[in-house]
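Today's session is about reading a structure prediction critically. Students often jump straight to the picture, but the first step is always the sequence itself: look for stretches that repeat, for charged clusters, for runs of hydrophobic residues. Only then move on to the predicted structure, which in these notes is written as discrete structure tokens rather than atom positions. Here is the chain we will use throughout the hour.
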Amino acid sequence: MARPAAFVLVALALAALFVRLGVWQLDRAAQRQAANARVASLLAQPFLQVGPADLRNAAAAKRLAWRRAAAEGRYAAEGEVVIPGRAYKGSPGVHLLTPLLLEGGGGVSILVNRGWVPSPDASTVKREAYREQGRVRVCGVLRPPSAPEARALLTGRAAAVPVVLEQLAGARSRPFPIRSSGPELTGGPHRSYAVQWFSFAAIALIGAGAYVRSRARHLDRSDTS
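Below is the predicted structure for this chain, in token form.
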């Protein structure tokens, strides 16, 4: 009897674990929903005109995250960084991240994600073909940097500001770079993961019940014989 009892205990333990993981995924879904609501409320606020004073330190810059903003200045092409492995509608390409030297900033700059450009190997690109010369006005969304963008910030070639200005699509005078259409506020896969974990728990319980019934029938037959 020790082996059947151990099997049932293991099945019950697994079911409890799967339920706990399902609840955890539901909790993550709720957290993401709350975060999306906060971001949506910030995006709904009026445009900011970002200047050097707004980026005076990391804490001040972080408070601007998820605000629509505009900045004016000149691009520092020598500090441009290419983010490889970016696809657009199934086509390989890269993102161009370029420091924007803010007007009147005494060298203060912010990293601008200028958008996607095609690259057959999704790694290299002739950056000079996409240079934007002279004074520019960039409209976009200030947000925390992605992992590749954070690495670009650490190189020291880009602005040491903990936000990135993601340039939004507008009146386009050239086909590339293709600008961002804005942050995608999705619920993520957490609810579907929760359903999977709850399904695994149900399978474990059903399996344990079937095993117990099978053992009971076997014992009944043994007793009658």
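Discussion point for the tutorial: Residues 2-43 form the longest helix (42 residues).
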